[in-house]
Amino acid sequence: MKFHILIFGCQMNYSDSARIKAILINCWMKYTSDIKQADIVIFDTCSVRQKSEDKITGKLKEIWKNQKVWITWCMIQHNLRNAKIDKMAKFKVWNFSWSLKSKTPEIIWLTTDEINDFKNKYPPEKGDKGGLINNKWNIVWINNAFNPMFFNLSQKLKNIELFFRIDDVWFLPIILPKIWYKIKYNSEIINEYEKIIPQWINTSMNPHQTTAYIPISTWCNQFCAYCIVPYARWLERNFPLKQIVDEAKLHIQNWAQEIVLLWQIVNKHPDFIEILKSILKIEWLKRLRYTSPYPTYYSKELLELHEKENKLCPHIHIPLQSWSDNILKKMFRWYDSKQCYEFIDKIRWLKRHISITTDIIVWFPWETEKDFKETIKLIKYWKFDMIYIWIYSSRPWTLAAKKYENDIPYKTKHKRRSKLNELLKKNSLENNKKEIWSIKEVLVNEILIQWNTKTLKHWNIIWYTDNMKQTLINIQDSSKIKEWDFLTVKIIDGKSFKLYWEIINKNTTKH
Ligand code: SF4
């Protein structure tokens, strides 16, 4: 049986897909990177914006009828409560059950026929909130029992076979026989979701294993007004220090040289500094990065580590979202513009040059011209190396969707966005010009062949520096370069979002 995983969304989904792969390979299934070869196509979904969900629904229709479809993660973990099938109230159970304590849980699922029978036999009583069975310690809900959306989608797309919660991935070996798969698996390596260590499996979005992603916690309690994550993922759970460091050691034994620590508010982990210090001591580690931090959890100790530890990448991503106190308050971001100023000031005063990037949300409801001008002031002042500009997208259950009306005229929206892009382009050019003649260590991420009428064949090399400047260069001869190579280069020119280099040395330090 061959399976293929379609990954949508953030790095977390890439690292989770590696966990799904580890479990299914343990069930003697084969992973195929060619979707056409797959008997089963697994959708690892994202719902941070409506656009992401629309993309997934569109992709679902492209899957061949003879291929089975399984769906997991965000898109089906928040829709639970807004599915328009109130007739099935009795079946509504919260997908936010806690981590299961038993290794032999009861698998609760319902076929479409059972749903129909149930609907006819027991019309719903007003305000019925009761779950079918509510002793949550040994129940795994799948398909209709997990999310009535399964019922809707499987009516339209008959090859949809399984909905499961990502945290229940480790139960796949016992879930699959329920849907008629003959499964044999090595029960020794069945492990709880966060303890699954995907050995020899690529955990990152890079096409090589030099980079390994390690989640250090899951879910988020910040409840920012616009964000669906707390509703799709629920309450925070931190993974133990020893487990995280052991996973890093294992990936480095398996040839990884760059470790990226993952979580929505990664620097909030109570042992964050200890985790960084322990991983920085691991032999053969070349680079350590982390994403995504939260501005208020940047401690003095963390900044000092950035200053003195060369292996800790000289790049800090600080998602500020806005610089207007009015908007920050409405977003429920627990800091104000003065603090934003202080955060960045502290980074700027470090002896080591640190690249700073940020996230800005545009078109947030009720954003006035004055609010927008505040954010522009921030960007003009701090000249970020990169700004990830997110367009506000109303998400179900969020406070903003419930309370704030999005009344910004279309024309204003686009004027503001192009103003931001223009400023970003100008800042990036200015910052990249300052990089000329500097010596950098770059990680080659991807080598793409390209044909061109004039020069016939040449290679596009996609790479990124330690301060996370990514760019693409084309060269005539790539024979000496491999994906995952670390190269020492001299920057010879800088343009907006682009750095040009020449190789000084190839650091093939693979142990
Ligand atoms: S910190 Fe805010 S924006 Fe980030 S995941 Fe948590 S709720 Fe969402």
Describe this structure as you would to a colleague.
31% of the residues lie in helices and 23% in strands. By secondary structure, the protein is an alpha/beta fold. The strands form 6 sheets. The chain has a 5-stranded parallel beta sheet, sandwiched between helices. The radius of gyration is 24 Å and the shape is globular. The structure holds iron/sulfur cluster (SF4). The site of iron/sulfur cluster has 10 residues, from helix 8.
In short:
Helices cover 31% and strands 23% of the residues. The chain folds into 3 domains: 2-178, no CATH class; 193-433, tm_1862 like domain (pyruvate-formate lyase- activating enzyme, Alpha-Beta Horseshoe), CATH 3.80.30; 439-507.
